[in-house]
Design goal:
The protein is mainly β and 83 residues long. It contains 1 helix and 5 strands. The chain folds into 2 domains: 48 residues, no CATH class; 35 residues, no CATH class. The chain binds zinc ion.
């Protein structure tokens, strides 16, 4: 069964259990939790990203492994080296 990560919803302080984030194992068919099981505050499910960063696609990862570099355009004529 997949593990889901939850965080307190925006504006919610949360409790010791949920304040940072907490994980719970649920069936795919289960509905997302709306409340913390400990304190009852609103929570939202966090989509788990790829370890290397949520914006990095599999293509980027492969390119990086092959030794390619990627530049990200910041301003006119200014490029940031991503890897
Ligand atoms: Zn809580």
């Amino acid at each position: 069964m997949p593990t889901y990560v939850y965080k307190p919803a925006e504006g919610e302080k949360g409790c010791d259990y949920c304040a940072g984030s907490f994980e719970t194992v649920q069936k795919m068919s289960d509905e997302a939790l709306k409340k913390c099981p400990e304190c009852g505050c609103g929570v939202r499910r966090v989509i788990m990203g790829i370890r290397k960063g949520p914006s990095q696609s599999g293509f980027d990862r492969k390119a990086q492994e092959q030794g390619f570099h990627k530049l990200k355009r910041r301003d006119k004529g200014t490029y940031e080296k991503l890897y």
